[in-house]
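User: Here's a structure from my thesis project, written as structure tokens. My advisor, Dr. K., wants to see whether a designed sequence matches the one we expressed. Can you design one independently, without my sequence as a hint?
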């Protein structure tokens, strides 16, 4: 079916108390793994592309994969640009067929973040493209965005309410204590902050830094208003590990197609596991 944006997808998730998985793809094979996983368990899904991945492959190449894989599919799929600071790239992705974009101006002063995010909404909304925006600083590395632990800070609840009221994003990513990359210790999630922001803004909340969180943390965050959960690092590990594990077990065999197939299955299995955990299996309408 044609690509969707995230609006109806996340609204349905909010009303039925589950979350939609948003998985960062790396190439055609990982894109195929996301689609096959969603079809396997009949779930809506968000295919995410980092700005770095878009720049590496080019918008025309990525959109050709997406159209080939998603148009025959029977499950709802959105194509989302993750963590982008470049307005020109956002505009290019919208023009090329992305159905959702994220403006990440969280490193800017509050008023500048508000202004830039509002500008993206004004660009995207007439094109029926949804917009995600971020407030606060999430520790770790995502794409080429590096936030050191000492520079990370939680979103301010009053600013979050003002931000959502003035920007009117379709999805909101407040910093609540999660981290991008691999966790080095026990994450301290600000559940009360999440609950307050979700209740007072009534905007679907995106949970960033999902790789490595305990199952009970995911479930609690979803119960408090997270309707979109980002998974990126897990796919990077599975992408490499799928290759390595097959080669280590068959180190005299040099058949690239078998290695690619092993990678596909490792990616797909991990995505299916997360979709089931988020409660979206069987929710494709």
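Assistant: Designed independently from the structure alone:
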């Amino acid at each position: 079916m044609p690509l969707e944006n995230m609006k109806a997808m996340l609204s349905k998730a909010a009303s039925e108390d589950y979350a939609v998985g948003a998985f960062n793809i790396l190439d055609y094979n990982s894109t195929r793994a996301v689609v096959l996983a969603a079809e396997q368990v009949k779930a809506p899904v968000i295919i995410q592309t980092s700005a770095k991945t878009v720049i590496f492959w080019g918008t025309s190449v990525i959109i050709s994969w997406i159209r080939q894989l998603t148009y025959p599919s029977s499950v709802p799929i959105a194509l989302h640009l993750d963590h982008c600071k470049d307005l020109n790239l956002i505009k290019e992705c919208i023009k090329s067929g992305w159905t959702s974009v994220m403006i990440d101006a969280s490193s800017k002063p509050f008023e500048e973040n508000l202004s830039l995010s509002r500008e993206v909404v004004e660009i995207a909304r007439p094109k029926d493209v949804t917009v995600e925006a971020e407030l606060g600083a999430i520790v770790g590395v995502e794409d080429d965005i590096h936030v050191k632990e000492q520079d990370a800070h939680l979103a301010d609840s009053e600013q979050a309410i003002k931000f959502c009221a003035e920007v009117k994003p379709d999805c909101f990513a407040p910093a609540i204590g999660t981290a991008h990359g691999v966790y080095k210790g026990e994450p301290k999630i600000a559940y009360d902050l999440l609950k307050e922001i979700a209740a007072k803004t009534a905007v679907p909340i995106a949970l960033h830094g999902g790789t490595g969180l305990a199952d009970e943390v995911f479930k609690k965050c979803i119960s408090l208003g997270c309707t979109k959960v980002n998974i990126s690092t897990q796919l990077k590990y599975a992408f490499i590990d799928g290759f390595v594990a097959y080669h280590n077990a068959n180190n005299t065999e040099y058949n690239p197609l078998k290695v690619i197939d092993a990678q596909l299955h490792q990616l797909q299995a991990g995505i299916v596991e997360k979709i089931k955990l988020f409660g979206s299996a069987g929710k494709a309408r």
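When you compare it with your expressed construct, this may help: The chain is about 50% helix and 15% strand.
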